[in-house]
Write a structure and sequence with these properties.
Keywords: Metal-binding, Zinc, Zinc-finger. With 266 residues, the protein is mainly alpha-helical. It contains 13 helices and seven strands.
Length: 266
């Protein structure tokens, strides 16, 4: 019985690892498409990619370890088109996910929006330099745009890295917690700004505190969108729980309007 339980546990772990791997491979394609359309996305997405999650360093790591290649019983396998296939030594065609990673890194160096928000530190430079030997003629023949990436990495290798951070201060308002922020810190923005000034810049500065205070106070000027009751046309606070589209001020108005709304409620 114990052997059966152990075998079952091993199968579950293998299945879990398989799912995690396939999801990870799928995320590479999603990331690549996001980078291709980065100009249409908000600045918070750029910040998360360049700062919070450090996507270029993740790409460097994946390109070095190549998790889509494995050795089993002295045979080399490659994961392509959602399945493991025996790797043909005479066929050097890149798998889709590896091509996506290289092109994603290329976007980081060619997109002004991404490049300006990504601070090159000594640590990052070191890991980016490790990719230079991978940019061989075979790879460049298959993905010609990577020639520009190779040139960019070469220029980076010759550049001096400043120890001064140029990272901008970016504020982001999350609509889901806006009310909580306003209720908790109403009329206290100037005090908060002065405290933030000390924390961020090392010493109190009236001008910086004033600037931060004005920035915070802009939050108070944002007006939430007002919805009108579909029945009485008064301000509504609740919406139909089924279609999530129609708004009502009360249960009574929702019941009264049901005969008219039910044909569109889906």
């Amino acid at each position: 019985m114990e052997n059966i339980d152990t075998q079952l546990e091993d199968e579950i772990i293998q299945h879990k690892n398989k799912i995690q791997f396939e999801v990870g491979i799928g995320c590479i394609g999603i990331m690549f498409n996001m980078l291709l359309h980065i100009k249409t996305l908000s600045i918070s997405v750029t910040t998360r990619m360049t700062t919070n999650n450090d996507v270029p360093m993740l790409i460097c790591h994946l390109l070095n370890i190549k998790p889509w290649v494995k050795l089993d019983n002295n045979k080399k396998y490659i994961f392509d088109d959602n399945s493991w296939k025996i790797m043909n030594e005479t066929n050097n065609i890149l798998p889709k996910q590896e091509a996506h990673l290289w092109l994603s890194l290329h976007e980081f160096f060619t997109s002004e929006q991404l490049r300006n928000n990504y601070e090159i530190t000594q640590f990052r430079k070191k890991h980016l330099m490790q990719l230079q030997h991978l940019l061989n003629d075979c790879l460049l023949d298959q993905i010609p745009p990577l020639i520009h990436l190779k040139q960019s990495l070469y220029q980076l290798s010759l550049s001096e890295i400043s120890g001064i951070s140029k990272r901008p201060l970016i504020m982001e308002i999350n609509a889901e917690i806006r009310s909580t922020i306003l209720n908790s810190y109403a009329k206290r923005w100037k005090k908060i700004a002065r405290a933030q000034s000390t924390y961020l810049f090392g010493s109190e500065s009236y001008d910086i505190a004033k600037s931060l205070s004005e920035t915070y106070e802009h939050i108070d000027n944002f007006e939430t969108k007002k919805y009108l009751c579909a029945n009485c046309k008064q301000q509504a606070k609740n919406k139909c729980s089924k279609c999530k589209k129609q708004w009502y001020c009360s249960r009574e108005c929702q019941v009264t309007n049901w005969n008219e709304h039910k044909t569109n409620c889906h």
